[in-house]
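FORM 12-B: Structure-to-Sequence Request
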């Protein structure tokens, strides 16, 4: 299982959910289910939404499998020292997301082998 939070530049919750569904479609071969935790306006920046969901995977993940999922979402990720969280931001040069309305991602992995 991992938790994914994405920050998107959009007008409303419905548009944010469409962007999330596009993400789920990109990684659907790796997951068994997902649960939407929140979909709220981002308090720091107008016209941004923060969407958080828990994602169950079909297999136990190791770093290589986690990275194969993440590369479908963004081409650039930074891992923390313990390698259990990763983030990607549009502020980094040449970062390409699956959708140009995405501005930032964070992922937290529960159990990486």
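FORM 12-B RESPONSE
SEQUENCE OUT:
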């Amino acid at each position: 299982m991992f938790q994914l939070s994405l920050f998107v530049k959009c007008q409303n919750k419905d548009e944010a959910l469409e962007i999330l569904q596009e993400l789920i479609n990109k990684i659907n071969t790796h997951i068994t289910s997902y649960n939407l935790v929140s979909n709220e306006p981002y308090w720091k920046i107008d016209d941004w939404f923060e969407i958080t969901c828990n994602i169950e995977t079909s297999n136990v993940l190791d770093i290589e499998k986690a990275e194969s999922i993440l590369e479908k979402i963004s081409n650039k990720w930074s891992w923390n020292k313990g390698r259990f969280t990763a983030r990607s931001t549009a502020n980094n040069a040449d970062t390409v997301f699956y959708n140009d309305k995405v501005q930032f991602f964070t992922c937290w992995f529960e159990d990486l082998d």
